[in-house]
Design a protein that fits this description.
5 helices, Rossmann fold
Amino acid sequence: MMPASKSVRPVHFLLVEDDEDHAGLISRALRDNRVANTVSHVVNGEQAMAFVNRHSPYEDADRPDVILLDLNLPRMDGHEVLAAIKSDPDLCSIPVVVLTTSHADADRSRAYSAHANSYLVKPLNFESFQALVQELKMYWTVWNEPAPATA
């Protein structure tokens, strides 16, 4: 059941994931069911930064409401992307959910030190992975109250 005060504006997810299988599963799970949302997908850290800063070829991109960020990325890793986003006054309010295969305490500590909003480890089991993405979607699209829009 949806909270009574929740707006019905679609949530825009930016998925930063280089594994095409994981990206496909996450994108499908986010788009399925009854909750309206949009998903943009980039495959490396440089593309993620170009997207959020609206640099070529993303000049017309909508600002994401939530970023789903893998840590193991080519060109610019997820830790670097997270640090860049959270240190930028224009971007730091965008929630960043680290979605990775890494169970390492060092990765988790580094992510939270850089102000990640959440750290989730991708389950190896397909059904568990699907369930995780469904729960993630429900939290960010139904239950979470986003920061107020800035002028």
